[in-house]
Amino acid sequence: MIPNQACLLKKIGIMDLSRNSFSGTIPHCFHNITFGKINATNLSFPQTHATYTIWYKEETPRYASLLGKFLSGGAMDLAFDNQVKVEFVTKYRSRSYKGGILDYMSGLDLSCNKLTRGIPVELGQLSSIHSLNLSYNQLTGSIPKEFSSLDSIESLDLSHNNLSGEIPSTLIDLNFMAIFNVAYNNLSGKVPEMKNQFGTFENSSYEGNPFLCGPPLENGCSTIVEKSKPKASERKWYQVDPIAFFASFSVSYIIFFSMVVSILYINPYWRQRCFNLIEDLMYWSYFTVLTPLKRLSGQLCLH
Q1: What are 4-17's pLDDT values in tens digits?
Q2: Are residues 207 and 94 in the same domain?
Q3: Cis link prior to 61 (omega < 30° from 0)?
Q4: Are 144 and 183 in the same domain?
Q5: What are phi and psi of 217, to 5 degrees?
Q6: Share of the chain above pLDDT 70, in %
Q7: Which of 30, 46, 51, 160 could make an SS bond with 102 (beta carbons 3.0 to 4.6 A apart)?
Q8: Is 175 buried (19+), middle (13-18) or exposed (0-12) by CB count in 10 A?
Q9: Does 43 lie in the same domain as 107?
């Protein structure tokens, strides 16, 4: 697990904990970490020194030991006179940086681990962070709406997880976001409108989510709705709602009966015709049904 003591770190430029075997959840206290440009008036981090990265990777044992010393309660001095080259992954590119340029870079990379459960909404308070990479984990739940407060974010990668729900439409207000990737999750609903930076994102940013719809995807939202509803021709008689059927039948019968009674009451001609018809039916029933039955019963008695 990522220890909560990591939340005590301050003045961090880039924190890279990727490609490890961290499990469990992302600490909710990560928003307490100060990312971004170092204040030039801070005497603990003079402007003449480089901004250093906290690494916890097998490929960089030097920084792993430093972080381990800090987490175990020891002091850790990050003010080195030598400029250290740092590899920073953002916007799908991995490049090395050193010197004062790192003062203007900030990022959190937790990719390629085994982190589970939901994304802490508190990460939305990292308003000065430029890159956030949570890809290739086992994160679940929805994308926090609080991510719309990441005002400085340029690269947001949430791909290859188990996230569900809709993509918050408020993310279109992130004017500096050049990279957005939520591919290969379980997201659904309509993709945010192609406005501002979202107008530059292609299909590859959303692929692997079969229930997402809308431009730039090929799936139209109306198509998905139609697929979810059975066609009228495919429905069977036993799929008819019995309550609706009997209700409509009863209403129709009452209306028909009321109309017949009204016509017979108002129009004497049709009333007389109706009585004559009933009388004819009674005579017909007597001679065609009752008379043969009487003859048949008489013959049976003789035998």
Answers
A1: 888 888 878 888 88
A2: yes
A3: no
A4: yes
A5: -75, 155
A6: 69
A7: 51
A8: exposed
A9: yes
